[in-house]
Structure formats: structure tokens, C-alpha cells
Design a protein that fits this description.
This protein has 318 residues and is an all-alpha fold. The chain is built from 13 helices and two strands; from the N terminus they run ααααααββααααααα. Strand 1 and strand 2 form a beta hairpin. The longest helix has 31 residues. The relative contact order is 0.18. The N terminus is likely disordered.
């Protein structure tokens, strides 16, 4: 009986430890600094977490397969420019810039998938190449300057709120629920985990590894395209430099969320907490007047620490 209780405790810590730590940090910040617990500030935290959270889910599904997507930030800029070019007042229906942004992101993601699946290129190499391509296309299409003069309906998509909660939060929640369903309820989701755990074993068991990887990277591109569209709407411009280093924020959210960088493991709710955790830390650093440049240092330390914990925990299991 004692062993069973011990096992249950370790299971709880493994599955919900991140949630507990997050809640403790939030409570401490709320007690220490009154500014943090103000409703407007909490809404800002949610806004900051939303776009990164959407990207993090795209990164999550790639990382679970044992890969990585370095092109995300550039796709955000490229998709944002593409959306902005078709969002001028009175020119096109609102659905057009949305679809264009998703096509732009999905196309780059598809190229990544083809490179990884059928070209046998390392994910690091192919996504590094498309990172440069997407950023270059953003600069070419925009002429190197932000695309402005957006319609009011376009800007309202990411700038408005419902019941006092920003629209961005609803998009984040929607994406989280979609990925939760895909990873937990669909056969495709089980295949993703199996591929990340052991590609050879997955192939031997009859899984079409190449096709599944193609879908995975395309989904990642679609998430980046959606994020680019939302950023263009939120900032009222399509900037070719938008999204720089966003892929690193997504990776940080993923590793904080407990997704194994070696593939095969990760919970969807961990990514939600990871994205919120980063937003809370950044917000706290701003409140305390810490030099913004230190934020990158903090993120780097967090990534190293999270990956180290993952490696150590796997070593114990083995």
C-alpha cells in the first residue's frame, strides 16, 4: 500500500508539477507586487501568451516527432505581410487575407515536410533554409517597409475583446482544444507520438512515417501563418521584420511545458502553461524594471534548465 501511495505521488508531481509551480509563481507575484494582479495587467499577460501559445502548439507537434522548426518566426513575418497586402479597405472580403496568410504559412510548412520526409534532410537544415526564404519573401513582397492602411474589420479581429477578454485568448484556447483533440483522440495523434518514440518501430508497425511528418510540418506552418495574420491585425501593419526570434519563444514554451526535445512525449496542457509561464516571467521582469536584454538571458537559462531536467529524468527511467 505504501508503494502504491508513493507511486501516486510521483505521478501527480510528474503530470501536474508544472501547474503547481506556475500557480505558486503567480501567487507570489500577486502578493509581492500589486501591479501584477491588476486586471489590465493580467489581460496583457494573456495577450502576450496567446500568439506565442499558438506557435508553441505548432512547435510542439514537430518536437514530439523528434524535429524542430526554425522557420516559424520568418513565416510569421511572411504571412503577416501577405495578409496585410490583401487587407486594404474596400479591396477584398475579410476572408481573403485570412486564407492568404494560412496558405503562405502552410506552403512553407509543406516545403519543410517534403524536405524532412522525402528529401531526408535534417529538420534543422531544411527549416534553417526556409527561415531565410520566408524572411526574404517578406522583404521582397513588402518592398522592405511595413504594409499599412488596414481595414477596420481586419484590425478588429485581433484587437477587440469579448466579455472583457481579448479575442486573442479565444483563438489560443481554440487552437489548444484542437491540438488536445488531435493528439489524444485521433489515430494521427498516436502515430505522431510513436514516430517520435522510435521511427523505425513506427515504420515496421505499418505507419506511413513520411506522410505523417509531411502533415506535421504543414500543421506547424499553418500555426505560424495564423500567428502572422493575428500579429498583422493586432499591430495594424504587416512588417517584414515581424516575428524575429519567435521560434525561440515557441521552443521555450514547449520545453517548459515538459515536451521532450528527444521526441515521443509531451502533454498539450503543458504547452498552455509554458506559454503563460513565459508571459508571466516577461511581465514580472518589466514590472521590476529589469533591462529588456536580460529577458533573452532568462529564456536561455530556462531552456537549458528544462532540457537538463528532461535528460536527467530520462536517465533515471533507463
Amino acid at each position: 500500500m505504501k508503494k502504491e501511495k508513493s507511486f501516486n505521488k510521483s505521478t501527480v508531481l510528474r503530470d501536474y508539477g508544472l501547474v503547481i509551480i506556475f500557480l505558486v509563481v503567480v501567487i507570489i507575484l500577486a502578493i509581492v507586487t500589486p501591479t501584477f494582479r491588476k486586471p489590465m495587467n493580467l489581460l496583457n499577460v494573456i495577450k502576450q501568451a496567446s500568439v506565442n501559445g499558438i506557435l508553441a502548439f505548432g512547435m510542439m507537434i514537430v518536437v514530439i516527432t523528434g524535429g524542430i522548426d526554425l522557420s516559424m518566426g520568418s513565416i510569421v513575418g511572411f504571412a503577416g505581410v501577405c495578409a496585410a497586402l490583401f487587407a486594404h479597405p474596400g479591396e477584398y472580403p475579410l476572408i481573403v487575407p485570412i486564407v492568404i496568410a494560412l496558405i503562405a504559412g502552410g506552403a512553407i510548412g509543406f516545403i519543410n515536410g517534403v524536405g524532412v520526409s522525402y528529401g531526408n534532410l535534417p529538420p534543422f537544415i531544411i527549416t534553417l533554409g526556409t527561415m531565410s526564404i520566408a524572411r526574404g519573401l517578406a522583404l521582397v513582397f513588402s518592398g522592405g517597409v511595413p504594409v499599412i492602411d488596414m481595414s477596420e474589420s481586419f484590425v478588429a479581429i485581433a484587437s477587440g475583446s469579448l466579455f472583457g477578454i481579448p479575442y486573442l485568448s479565444y483563438y489560443f484556447i481554440g487552437i489548444a482544444l484542437i491540438f488536445a483533440f488531435v493528439l489524444n483522440k485521433l489515430v494521427f495523434g498516436r502515430h505522431v507520438y510513436m514516430i517520435g518514440g522510435n521511427k523505425i518501430a513506427a515504420k515496421v508497425s505499418g505507419i506511413n512515417v513520411k506522410l505523417n511528418l509531411l502533415v506535421v510540418y504543414t500543421l506547424s506552418g499553418l500555426c505560424s501563418g495564423l500567428a502572422g495574420f493575428l500579429m498583422a491585425s493586432r499591430t495594424n501593419q504587416g512588417s517584414p521584420t515581424m516575428g524575429v526570434s519567435y521560434e525561440m519563444d515557441a521552443v521555450t514554451a514547449v520545453v517548459i511545458g515538459g515536451v521532450s526535445m528527444s521526441g515521443g512525449a509531451g502533454k498539450w496542457y503543458g504547452v498552455v502553461i509554458g506559454a503563460l509561464f513565459i508571459a508571466v516571467i516577461e511581465n514580472a521582469l518589466t514590472i521590476f524594471g529589469v533591462d529588456p536584454n536580460w529577458k533573452q538571458v532568462v529564456k536561455g537559462v530556462i531552456i537549458i534548465g528544462a532540457v537538463l531536467l528532461d535528460v536527467k529524468s530520462k536517465g533515471k527511467k533507463e
